[in-house]
Amino acid sequence: MKTLGLHRIVASLSLAFALVIGAPAAVAQDATATEQLESVDPAEAADVADPEAVSAGSDAYTPMAPTEGKGMPVAGGIDIQPQYSETGEYAYGLHIWLFWVMVVISLFVLALLLYVVFRFRKSANPVPSKTSHNTTIEIIWTVVPALILLAIAVPSITLISKQYKTPPADAITIKAIGYQWYWGYAYPDNGDFEIVSNMLTEEEADARGEPHQLAVDNRMVVPAGVPIRLQVTAADVIHSFAVPSLWFKMDAVPGRLNERIFQVDEPGVYYGQCSELCGARHGYMPIAVEALPMDQYNAWVLAQGGTVAGADEAGVEADPSLPPLQGPESSAPGAPGAGAPPVETPAA
Ligand SMILES: [Cu+2]
Asked: Which controlled-vocabulary keywords does the entry list (predicted)?
């Protein structure tokens, strides 16, 4: 028993030591990424692309410049990313609540241990008490933990029900489709066109003032402030559609349509990554969600050759001079997400 106890103490101490030594190195590594982000012209980092540029039916959509620290990881960050959806804000509150519950319990147990170790050590207490039952204390140590569990269960179950709330019948449906190794975004309620989204190279991302390995050529554009019915599926292997700042992660399984409500509070660019090991280029199929006000979203849809409900009454139509729709199979040749042709392994 003595050896086991010592072993555990040594293991905990070395883990703590490794964390203290490792943390500055990780911060230093991330610092380079921040420097690159800081070089973005503040004028470019305006929240919304020029509203003049996206009048109804125009193809003058300009990708919105991301805001540093919003919808993306930050150097040296140790907390959950700031949340931009109602469910995410609720989940973040639960995370902080759980943190303090754990802090209080840990300090309480530590204080009890220290008290017992010093107060009842052999020299101070040579004849140990033989007490084995105490009804009052047994009731307390049963009821108090039960109440603590209840105080955790209520917000926890509320969060689950919020996450899987059925979207309203009039919610816009958008479908995210995982491919090896890029994403496709279909808009069945807007004329069923599909956008193919490949990762940008480091040079292209830097040129656009976006974080590389997160920036993509064509973003998943969504309307802000309204509930969306987001369906997630895959064409080849299992992927996972995940955007940390929007509290969304759902497996993309071939032959299966997973669905969850998806809502972005405010316009902005929010980055995520495939979160299911899906093959050789799993790490190079990022997600970039761009949330736009509804009128700008409609203008973007029309610029892609899509349709908008009620567009006839409003007098806006798709521009017939625009290029044809992209097909799901058209991962741009040579693009970073497109992957390399299979290589024959020579027989040994
Ligand atoms: Cu994947």
From this structure: Copper, Electron transport, Membrane, Metal-binding, Respiratory chain, Signal, Translocase, Transmembrane, Transmembrane helix, Transport
Range of the domain at 205: 172-323
How many domains, the chain? 2
User: Measured in angstroms, how far is the CA atom of residue 229 from the centroid of ligand 1?
Assistant: 21
Bridge-based pairing state of the strands 286-292 and 193-197: unpaired
pTM to 2 decimals?
Answer: 0.70
User: How far is ligand 1, taken at its centre, from the CA of residue 239, in Å?
Assistant: 4
Concatenating the DSSP letter of every residue in 110-159 gives HHHHHHHHHHT-TTT-SS-------HHHHHHHHHHHHHHHHHHHHHHHHH
Cβ burial of 68 (10 Å; 0-12, 13-18, 19+) is middle
Q: For residue 105, give the nearest of 151, 139, 138 by alpha carbon.
A: 151
Give the distance (Å) from ligand 1 centre to CA of residue 327: 19
- The Å distance, Cα 273 to ligand 1 centre, comes to 8
Q: Which amino acid is at 125?
A: N
Q: What is the pLDDT of residues 255-290, one digit of tens each?
A: 999 999 999 999 999 999 999 999 999 999 999 999
> Residue 148 to residues 12, 63, 92, 156, 226: CA-CA distances in angstroms?
27, 48, 19, 12, 36
Residue type, 255: G
- CATH of residue 197's domain is 2.60.40.420
Centre of ligand 1 from the C-alpha of residue 199, in Å: 12
* Same domain assignment for residues 189 and 310: yes
Quote the ligand 1 centre to 10 CA distance (angstroms): 39
Token readout for 186 is 């279909």
How far, in Å, CA of 298 to CA of 58, rounded?
Answer: 10
- With a cut of 80, say whether residue 227 has pLDDT above it: yes
323 CA distance to ligand 1 centroid (A)?
28
pLDDT single digits (tens) 184-212: 999 999 999 999 999 999 999 999 999 99
State the Cα–Cα distance between residues 270 and 129, nearest whole angstrom. Answer: 62
Do both 317 and 177 map to the same domain? yes
